[in-house]
Fold each of these.
Amino acid sequence: AMGVAERLTELGLALPDPIPVHGRYRPVVVHGDVAYTSGLMAVAGPPLRIDYPGRLGDDLTLDEGKQSACGALLQTLSHLVAEVGDLERIEAFLQVRGYVCATPDFDKVHHVVGAANRLVGELFGDGALASRTAVGVATLPERASVVLDTVVALRPAPQKERGKER
């Protein structure tokens, strides 16, 4: 069967570099077999910069919002790989919460976040699809248009790796 990395390549996608952490938080917290990811957004570069900055219903289209959400998911995967070592460790996305910078009359925030969840299905299979919350907000950090945070179920690390874990 094709692995997740191969499916990424087949879709013409690549994982970006993880955004460096500024501030007192961890981008990924692993507790037992569950990983919790901090709110992350799409990035472009190098040099690293916010991809798709702006507001849905104002300076960004629905399609650009969907691209932004998918970019945020790729940034999430990048941080997960940095923490757990391998995309194949990801068993399922249990929850995806998406915050979409949008005008008060923009009522398609669920379609924006849905694009990220659809990408989860394409990469990991429909059994890995997450529960979903989509919220429209007035502002996001650095003018990001979409911020995602996720809860992810992990497979156990291969035995030989276990010694390296804290």
Amino acid sequence: MIKRHPIVFLLLLALLILLGLAWQNRAHLAAFPDITSAYAAKEYCSCRYVMDNPAPYCAGYVKQWLPLTRFLDDTTNKRVTAEGLGRSHSARWLDVRQGCQLE
């Protein structure tokens, strides 16, 4: 097979290597969907309520290459909820000393 189809052999070998790496890092890959929404919620909350920047600036600040499916900014309670890749996280402004915290 190697002499007849070297390209197919190299593609299969690369696929096996990628599967091995994915299996080795499966815990990190499983945590990835949580990171995007948690990052957006926490950083937007900090940008908006700790640093007191305008909403459009903070929205651009936390924009990622993976889009969020839902994003809510509750200005009365100073709470931000972001949902992406099927996971939802919220961050809330506590006070001047503590800033924002993930819930």
